[in-house]
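Ligand: adenosine-5'-diphosphate. Inputs:
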Amino acid sequence: MRRTDATRPATGAGGPERSGNLRALTFLGRPRLDPDPGLDRLPRFSVSATEDLVEGGLDEAKSAPDRARLALAEALSASQPVTSRDRFAGRFDLLEALIAAVEQQRAHVVVYGERGIGKTSIIHMFAEAAREARYVVLYGSCGVAATFDDMFRSFAAQLPLLYHAGISPTTEEAEHRRTFADLLGDSPVDARRLAELFGQVVGTRVIVVLDEYDRVADINFRREVAELIKNLSDRAARVQVVLTGVASNLEELIGFTPSIRRNIVGLPVGPMSEAEMREILAKAERATGLSFPPEAADLIVTMAGGSPYMTRLLGLRSASRALDDARDTVSAADVIAGAESVLAEWNNGLPRRTQVLLRHPEVRSAWPMLIAAARASGTPDGWFTADDVAGEMGEGADAEAVGQQLDSYLGPIDLFDRSETTAGDFGREPRYRFRAQGVAQLLALSAALARAGR
Ligand SMILES: Nc1ncnc2c1ncn2[C@@H]1O[C@H](COP(=O)(O)OP(=O)(O)O)[C@@H](O)[C@H]1O
Ligand SMILES: [Mg+2]
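Predicted complex:
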């Protein structure tokens, strides 16, 4: 193994027999073969990536806490969508509605909701169910730089030409490897051409998934997608579009396009129920052998406020603390400490001036109003009005006073952005948004922690 070579004392040219100075010169800019004593202290991975995880839970792993840690990271990772059924909790109604919209209504579907609420995970489960039913599912995650041409060419390239009405299934072997992309030509693909081509699909049904659609920056992309949906519907093609994105309503994602509105089913993804969040923890218990007794689970569920992301993050952090202590039961104190570590991390992730701002006495004294603003900012685009904040503050809160207070944070303490709404019958109304990303989440978690501490 290479490592043993490196730790073996160096011999030969440049070895110990040379004088110190000469040796130093000879080796300038070249790796030295003798062991570097600092090397042993450099952090390493504890478990090989090729090792299988323990299936039987923590018991077998007790001798190897690292394995438990890996199983935990696998069970509660908050940075990845769920892709396997045994990790997916709840969301039955949504999945059912999505399947019905596609299968019974033959509609195109827009799945929308906040970031981290579980859209991509639902889509993965949906795609698995659709593939089982012999649909061809083409999945694409949209990036800022996505173009209609790139995206749909790559979809077409995954669709075998065997499903084209013009190709007989008995054609030669060579034809079997060709795809719809071979028929697209060189000029940029547009919606009309694509709908024409997709209109030729026979022998299966195709679902095109455009995940993270809100990230698409190119206006032309959005225009073409709307046009494609319209054309596919007009032709009753066997291709359906399912798109997901961060939005508080359908229009934000697909615009006001009356001509396609009736062909689209909108499915909002809201907060999880308490039972669903508990199911996430229960699944993690089964996968790791760790346990979240009621006092710990209650705290996590309260603090997570319906977010599967927060449920996992708090679950992961608190359970790691238990593992640090060689315990297999997570305590309420682990949860609090875990939440505090998340809070500290989020705070460190904010721009330096925002961090300073949040410690400002004037800002501190308005904490309850700010926390209400954080709750009001729970819309996907983050905008809220003084009325929304007053509503969150409850009885006795005066929207006008709140508005003045919000305005006072626009000048030197520019915590918020302000703009005028155009919607509504009551003329223009100012609306506000936290300027730095992450401030609202931080305030909400700090409020949840304060509540939990009581
Ligand atoms: N039904 C679910 N069961 C378990 N964990 C979930 C579920 N839905 C979402 N999560 C977790 O929540 C986090 C955010 O989910 P994701 O699907 O990426 O949300 P979105 O696409 O809406 O941003 C991920 O860590 C994911 O594992
Ligand atoms: Mg997503």
